[in-house]
Each structure stands twice: as C-alpha cells, then as structure tokens.
Amino acid sequence: ETSAGAAAVDQAALPENAVTADSAEALISAIRREEFGFQGDSLAGGSLQVKQNARLARALKRLAGELYGSDIHWQLELLQNADDNKYDEGVLPSAEFLLRTDPKGGGGEVIFRCNEAGFQE
C-alpha cells in the first residue's frame, strides 16, 4: 500500500495509454507553472509575475465595470436571453423592443418581445 492508504498499482497491468496518478499530477503541476506562474502554492515568476497579475486584475476589473456598469447592459442581457431560447423548427428568431410613452406625461415603458417557443414541460 502507498502512504495515502490506496493499493499500489501494478504499472505493467495498465494499458499502454493509461494515465497514472503520477503523470496526471505532473501534468497539472506543469500547467500551473507554465500557464499561471505557480511553483507549488507560490508564484514562481517573482516580482515581474506579481506585477503582470496585478495589471491583469486591474484590466479585468475595469472591463467588468464597463460591461456591467453600462446603461444598456439590461438590453444586452435580454438579447442574450433571446439568443439562448428555443424556437420552433422553421421559425426565424426575432426580437424587438417597443417603447411606449404615457400620453398624459406619466412616464413610459419598454416592452421586449421575441418569438421563442415558450415554456414547455
């Protein structure tokens, strides 16, 4: 038995293309080191890697703020939802925004419609 308590594996009994725990762990370690700059649980790239990670974090924060802080974000979400919907066979998907104002000056409303198949059980 191994130190982890699992039965030892007879390497000769494995198929030629079998992935062992050791090879899987080595692959994961290589990806963490080569793609993300980690050596074990710490960054291996030194101060340059830390600076690059900080730049990336700031860029992602700015991108997220611009995307989700936008006045039109809710419209884009509605269009994305319409794109994800299911449509009857042969139906060309369409979506529209209707803007209606209150003739008495009390405001208005936005109506969003699409020709999805709708809820089905």
Which labels suit this protein?
single chain; 121 residues; alpha+beta; two-stranded antiparallel ribbon; 3 helices; elongated; disordered N terminus
Report on this model:
This protein has 3 helices and 4 strands. It has helices at 21-36, 46-68, 73-84, and strands at 38-39, 42-43, 95-101, 108-114. It has a two-stranded antiparallel sheet. Strands 3-4 form a two-stranded antiparallel sheet. The longest helix is centred in the middle third of the chain and has 23 residues, at 46-68.
Overview in brief:
The chain has helices spanning 21-36, 46-68, 73-84, and strands at residues 38-39, 42-43, 95-101, 108-114.
Task: Write the topology of this structure.
Elements: H1 21-36, E1 38-39, E2 42-43, H2 46-68, H3 73-84, E3 95-101, E4 108-114
Antiparallel strand pairs: 1-2, 3-4
Number of helices: 3
Per DSSP E runs of 2 or more residues, the count of β-strands stands at 4
- The structural class is alpha+beta
- Shape estimate: elongated
Radius of gyration: 27 Å
| Strand percentage | 5-15%
